[in-house]
């Protein structure tokens, strides 16, 4: 067992997601009735410990962002339980949920869309502080300057508007806003995907140093496996609404077990010879989440599929020390 | 070394500027490169470096006003495209030089079947009849690996997945057997497993059809897997021009080195990434000297005062950096500059 997981296990359980399902209705027909459901997330279980960075990776439509949104209650999940600090979030009303959001913040992908263009930086950060009412009014301005310093923005930015900043700087503003209320868990939904690599590296370094400084826990949702490998302690791989593999970073990247994880890792284009893996090119496209394949959802693209895969859904099983895989062929 | 006569496209001193209310944006400001037959040339750089504007300038697709190609030459088969009439350009586009874009959904017409859209290429450029053109369209879909092409040809773009649409775009671009295919971020909108399929497909087709490919991308991984030769662009200029092998083995320009160090490694653990400090300069207000100087860890007085030329180095690659010129006194900087 790696040192990191050991440390993680000693820490307190912060988030416990049980059998989370998020089905979106598909309307159609003459009367606009619900004719089917998009099974965006279909039975997801995982835990997070305080202070760790857990990533969810997968391709478009695998349900990684939906999982994040469900935890924040931005959508109302169809089924399941989400325990955050021992409290089931799905049982809370709006007012109670707002209180929880003090400890549960989010950074979105597009810093252009998630900041109000008519608000100055001061007003954006002040709003975050006053909604949660975390500080007496007199201390808020001081806190705003402190936040700007934490995220590496000059103090004179406070009277400027979002459009005056570059993409990387805007993402820093988003980070300052999430940080404002001193949260425990920050969900980073593709937080660096829109940035150029040189700026992405700056923001990743910032996130890591803030995590050390404030003992933050990150749920990092991303499709870029290089970024995920850099930032994570543990990684969840999702495919078509289900978790196919969970492992600590080292295990996942060195000895992936699920055939989908293997194909995904082999598909990353790399620049160094020593990073190259034997390419497994998957046939076809990801099936529709409205009518996912029976049995294992990956069976129709899996190079190793056997008969059992077509009929039986493989459960997510523990193979060793927290390494979980959902595949009939892995024992 | 490649033969001189294999040269199909040469871009010399290309300059494309935009004249806006805020001033003159020098989006492309002196770009040179050569494309040979059957070769893949990568143009790589971050947002705003001018890589897409370069490719649009080759096909003269720049909106004017505000944009204007203010200088340089684009020599295709011995003739300068910049002095051609619009009517001649129309014959060249899609026929001899074709292009695919990042987002196939915005390049395809949503109300026509994909078969009709490919057939149109044959009707316009090769004066084929409807039936024959349709047959050719289905053949093209088959060539790019679309299963049951007869059925798929009848479908509209929204009925296809992202990867499938990009295959359709490739089919359309290759219909007239072009000599050059310009691919502008062809896989950026796609998932990695689908990206792997499309890159594989492009490689196979290139080997079969022998065209030259200009691959425009921000992804160094894609460059390393597909390109023979690479031009690295920064703030409107080519800063390094080398074979892909040389570029990744021995990057020379501090910007190229900075880019490579910014990428998270897949083989070792790093506590922090070596980011390039600062931001790309505004195209309205470029630094006087080397455009990378304000962010460069090695910059000295000369770098801030004068723009370096793109010069040949000993191993046949080219680099635009004072550090590799006789004017630079301390050559130990070069060895210090290497990739970690």
Task: Describe the structure concisely.
The complex is a heterodimer of chains A (331) and B (340). Chain A has helices spanning 3-10, 64-71, 94-100, 121-132, 137-150, 167-179, 197-214, 225-231, 249-254, 259-266, 307-311; strands at 13-28, 33-49, 53-57, 79-84, 87-88, 104-107, 185-189, 217-222, 234-239, 242-248, 317-320, 323-325.
Structural summary, described in words:
Chain A: InterPro entries: AAA+_ATPase, ABC_transp_ATP-bind, ABC_transporter-like_ATP-bd, ABC_transporter-like_CS, Oligopep_ABC_C, P-loop_NTPase. The complex is a heterodimer of chains A (331) and B (340). In chain A, the strands form two sheets. An eight-stranded mixed β-sheet of chain A has the order 6-7-8-3-9-10-12-11, sandwiched between helices. Chain A contains eleven helices and twelve strands. Chain A has 331 residues and is α/β, with parallel strands linked by helices. With 340 residues, chain B is an alpha/beta fold. Chain B has two domains: 258 residues, Rossmann fold, CATH 3.40.50.300; 68 residues, no CATH class. Chain B has 13 helices and twelve strands. In chain B, helix 4 packs across helix 5, helix 5 packs across helix 7 and helix 7 runs parallel beside helix 8. The mean pLDDT of chain B is 89. Classes of the chains: A alpha/beta (331), B alpha/beta (340). Chains A and B meet through helix 6, helix 7, helix 8 and helix 10 of A and helix 7, helix 8, helix 9 and helix 11 of B.
């Amino acid at each position: 067992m790696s040192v990191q997981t050991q440390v993680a296990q000693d820490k307190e359980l912060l988030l416990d997601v049980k059998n989370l399902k998020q089905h979106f209705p598909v309307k159609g027909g003459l009367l606009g009735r619900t004719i089917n459901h998009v099974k965006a997330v279909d039975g997801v279980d995982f835990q997070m410990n305080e202070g760790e960075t857990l990533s969810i990776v997968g391709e478009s439509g695998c349900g990684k962002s939906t999982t994040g949104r469900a935890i924040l209650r931005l959508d109302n999940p169809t089924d399941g339980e989400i325990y955050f600090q021992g409290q089931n979030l799905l049982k809370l009303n709006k007012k109670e949920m707002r209180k929880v959001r003090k400890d549960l913040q989010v950074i979105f992908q597009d810093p252009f869309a998630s900041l109000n263009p008519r608000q100055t930086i001061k007003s954006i950060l002040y709003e975050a502080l006053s909604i949660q009412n975390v500080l007496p009014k007199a201390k808020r301005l001081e806190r705003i300057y402190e936040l700007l310093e934490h995220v590496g923005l000059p103090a004179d930015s406070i009277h400027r508007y979002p459009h005056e900043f570059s993409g990387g700087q805007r993402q820093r503003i988003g980070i300052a806003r999430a940080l404002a209320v001193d949260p425990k868990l920050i969900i980073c939904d593709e937080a660096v995907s829109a940035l150029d690599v040189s700026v992405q590296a700056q923001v990743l370094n910032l996130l890591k140093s803030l995590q050390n400084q404030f003992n933050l826990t990150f749920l990092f949702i991303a499709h870029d496996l290089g970024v995920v490998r850099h930032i994570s302690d543990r990684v969840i791989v999702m495919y078509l609404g289900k978790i196919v593999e969970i492992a600590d970073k080292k295990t996942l990247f060195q000895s992936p077990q699920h055939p989908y994880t293997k194909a995904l890792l082999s598909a990353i284009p790399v620049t160094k010879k020593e990073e190259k893996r034997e390419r497994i090119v998957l046939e076809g496209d990801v099936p529709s989440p409205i009518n996912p394949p029976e049995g294992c959802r990956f069976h129709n693209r899996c190079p190793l599929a056997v008969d059992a895969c077509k009929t039986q859904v493989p459960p997510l099983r523990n193979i060793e020390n927290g390494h979980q895989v959902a595949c009939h062929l892995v024992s | 070394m490649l033969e001189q006569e294999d040269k199909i496209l040469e871009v010399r001193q290309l300059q494309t500027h935009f004249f806006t209310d805020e001033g003159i944006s020098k989006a492309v400001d002196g770009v040179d490169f050569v494309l040979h037959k059957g070769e893949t040339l990568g143009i790589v750089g971050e947002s705003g470096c001018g890589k897409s504007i370069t490719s649009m300038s080759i096909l003269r697709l720049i909106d004017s006003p505000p944009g204007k190609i203010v200088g340089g030459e684009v020599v295709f088969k011995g003739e300068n495209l910049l002095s051609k009439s619009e009517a001649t350009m129309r014959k060249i586009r899609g026929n001899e030089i074709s292009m695919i874009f990042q987002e196939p959904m915005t390049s395809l017409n949503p109300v026509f079947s994909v078969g009709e859209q490919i057939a149109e290429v044959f009707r316009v450029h090769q004066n084929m009849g409807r039936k024959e053109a349709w047959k050719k369209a289905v053949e093209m879909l088959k060539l790019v690996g679309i299963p049951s092409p007869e059925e798929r040809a009848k479908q509209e773009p929204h009925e296809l997945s992202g990867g499938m649409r990009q295959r359709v775009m490739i089919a359309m671009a290759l219909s007239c057997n072009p000599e050059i295919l310009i691919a502008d971020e062809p896989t950026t909108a796609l998932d990695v497993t689908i990206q792997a399929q499309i890159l594989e497909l492009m490689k196979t087709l290139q080997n079969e059809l022998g065209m030259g490919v200009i691959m425009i991308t921000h992804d160094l991984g894609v460059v390393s897997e597909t390109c023979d030769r690479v031009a690295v662009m920064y703030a409107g200029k080519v800063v390094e021009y080398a074979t892909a092998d040389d570029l990744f083995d021995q990057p020379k320009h501090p910007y190229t080195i900075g880019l490579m160090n910014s990428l998270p490694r897949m083989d070792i653990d790093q506590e922090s990434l070596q980011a390039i400090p600062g931001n790309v300069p505004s195209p309205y207000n470029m630094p006087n000297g080397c455009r990378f100087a304000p962010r460069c860890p090695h910059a000295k007085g000369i770098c801030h005062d004068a723009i370096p030329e793109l010069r040949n180095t000993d191993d046949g690659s080219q680099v635009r950096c004072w550090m590799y010129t006789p004017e630079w006194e301390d050559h130990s900087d070069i060895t210090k500059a290497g990739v970690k």
